[in-house]
Amino acid sequence: MHRDPQSEAIAASNQWQQASLDTGNPNPRIDEIFAIDVFDMKKMRQRLPKGVYKSVESVLEGGRKLTLGDAEVIATAMKDWAIERGATHYTHWFQPMTGLTAEKHDSLTSLDGEGGVVYRLSGSSLIQGEPDASSFPSGGLRATFEARGYTAWDVTSPAFIIRGSNYATLCIPTAFVSWNGEALDKKTPLLRSIDAISTQALRVLKIFGTDEGVTSVGSTLGAEQEYFLVDRNLFYARPDLVSCDRTLFGSMPPKHQQLDDHYFGSIPSRVLSFMAEVERELACLGVPVQTRHNEVAPGQYEIAPLFETTNLACDHQAMMMQILKSVAGRFGFVAIMHEKPFAGVNGSGKHNNWSLSTDTGVNLLDPQDEAHNNLQFMTYLCAVIRAVHMNADLLRAAISSASNDHRLGANEAPPAIISIFLGDMLEDLIDQIAKGATSRTLKGGSLDLGARTLPELTRDSGDRNRTSPFAFIGNRFEFRAVGSSASVAWPNTIINTIVADSLDYIATQIEKSVKKNSTQAQTETAIRKVLQQVIKEHRDIVFNGDNYTEEWQAEAEKRGLPNLKTTADTLPVFKKRSVASMFKKYKVLTKPELESRAEIFAEQYATQIGIETHQMLSIARTQILPACLEYQRRVALTMTQTEAAGSDSSFLGSTLDLITERVHRLTQAIEQLKNHVGFRNLDPFDASFYIRDHVLDAMHELREASDDLERMVDHELWPLPAYSEMLTIR
Ligand code: ADP
Ligand code: MG
Q1: Relative to the CA of 221, which ligand 1 atom is closest?
Q2: Lower CB density within 10 Å: C or N end of the chain?
Q3: How confident is the model at residue 144 (pLDDT cuts 50, 70, 90)?
Q4: How many CA atoms lie within 13 A of 552 on its CB side?
């Protein structure tokens, strides 16, 4: 049967516009449902004996490990709570190296031997699981014949319930390790990096004597998620979207984002209904959502949570992506998290807002009013500057993937060169630090809007810079180069580790130069000296200008900053000895664990491009070429028939020539790409270089050849939904 996805999409859209008029069912109050499906500390306090509750508290403070006895009591309380909330199954929920989340459900019920069933969750099944997980990528850490892997309960991230109309599953966040304890997931190294940064940040607090009552310092994270929504009918009519999450072909419509009329525009009602449902589900799961809006490209949106401690924020981020995908289906959409689903319009990122905070709630990267007197702030700031400068290549590598390569450096997202934007106030401050004394903090002043009825606005001391990959914004850094489909656990593992390393360095330098009986003034002088040195050595990473310009590319090269353009260029960074020894020093990753990750990233890259080339060839040969040949035949036929009827058909000759020429180009491009697909048999690292040097160009050429034809071939014959449909029907 012939399907017409466009008409189906419009019909679905109409139906949703109609449905959103029905306001009969008021939304629940957020405060009444918030965290209703989370087994958090509040519920533990209500349900656990005091002693056991205290043990959980002391585990959270890093004081001790959980005993099996305590686990038994907690498991029973958790199970009782879960079955009251309708759960029938539980799962250890983990984040393997696929970058996705994994779950294997076990029933909470077992037979009681007397013809009935009982609900059970033992302490040992709460704290340890053994999924048959031999098919997850391990990068050589284990062979399939020694496939044992364990999941271990992460007490710091509360269990939660994922539900649908006829199911509810208790999810227990866990770390995933191999038989000999090597990390096979994204969470284990993250937790280790959180310990590392806490230790080093505390040392600095001690130097300033501001550590009273502080037991730990953690990083905080708020990850803004950009995504596209496409009607399901159109999505499933595009094999490239289905298998690669991005369009491998497609020519731009005349109007897309040029007028900036979508950005921050009023949110279409079907989309808003979808967002509200996502937010309701996330609220039940205790994920605090703060903002929602239209993004730059048509069909593109953003959701941003309220920041939390990094481990929790990473789990919540993974849950957010899961919920976006599952709820989208109910509204007739597919949510696309890929960094560049549509060529020619903006791609999606995941702005990673990162800061450092004590467990007593003090943000250590908040300069406060008189930053020049705030030596403690300057110390943490200098640590970040040093960390980013010394590890610019590693940070770039942390966010590289086949999909993010399409976005970085495309004049809409930060370039592949990592630099820091500080803004006028902080740049002025570090210049003072470099001179040895700080005596002023630039102020933004106020803005008079000219109309008597409008309020006077306070102005920030510097503007924002949307082109910088790593920007200071008021009281935190925003790592803007992170891709929208990525797990944020890995980039944050790296930020935590490199900043821990720099805090360690700075603390050590200061401790060396401060004597036991130093006066406060002497201590301050010693600290200023260390910071002065750090700024002198690392100021080159700071760039406040426009990151999109060619001048910056040249300037960055002069400064010796790495410019790693593709994933293939970044993979060798993980093999650097200095990187391995840093991860080892802070006990974040052993050498084999790091090597396995490099292996996995290379393999994922080559596999992804392998799928894309395969899919491209298949669409080109079986859908696009036949449509073009048919059009060519029709034009030729029209010519001969016109001539047979005695009319002049020569004006059609140029059309036929043009289409023939373009079809010829298409067939050549198909052949050319076909000649390169042998990379699939290479070792993944070699494959990545081969892809960079040959395959990407061949893919580009095939796409161009096809897109040119799309602009000329009869629309009725074109076998794929057009950009104009996918980006606008909602
Ligand atoms: P914008 O798009 O203008 O950058 P948003 O409001 O969309 O701003 O997102 C800002 C994000 O930064 C939010 O997720 C917010 O919770 C987060 N954030 C704010 N303060 C901190 C902090 N101290 N640490 C980490 N993230 C923070
Ligand atoms: Mg932001």
Answers
A1: 25
A2: N
A3: very low
A4: 21
Distance, CA of 86 to CA of 605 (rounded, Å): 41
- Write out the residues surrounding ion ligand 2, Cβ under 5 A: 351
Instruction: Work out whether the CA dihedral 483, 486, 492, 497 comes out positive or negative.
Output: negative
Single-letter code of the amino acid located at 39: F
| Residue type for position 695 | V
Residue 376 burial (CB count, 10 A): 17
Paired tokens of 160? 């939660």
What pLDDT does 296 receive?
Answer: 82
Contact 20, 272 (CB under 8 A): yes
Residue 25 phi/psi, 5° resolution? -110, 95
Contact 430, 539 (CB under 8 A): yes
- Strand-pairing partners, residue 225, are 303, 350
Give the pLDDT confidence of 7-60 residue by residue, as tens digits.
888 888 888 877 766 666 667 788 999 999 999 999 999 999 999 999 999 998
pLDDT in tens, 384-394: 999 999 999 99
Cα–Cα distance measured from residue 233 to residue 492, given in angstroms and rounded to the nearest whole number: 37
User: Which pLDDT does position 2 carry in this prediction?
Assistant: 60
Of 353, 363, 364, 468, the residue with max ligand 1 atoms within 8 A of its CB, to mutate for a pocket test, comes to 353
Q: Give the distance from CA 62 to its chain's centroid.
A: 28
Confidence (pTM): 0.95
Is residue 226 a contact partner of residue 304, using CB atoms and an 8 Å limit? no
| Residue ID of nearest Cα to ligand 1 atom 21 | 307
Which ligand has the shortest distance to the CA of 219? 1
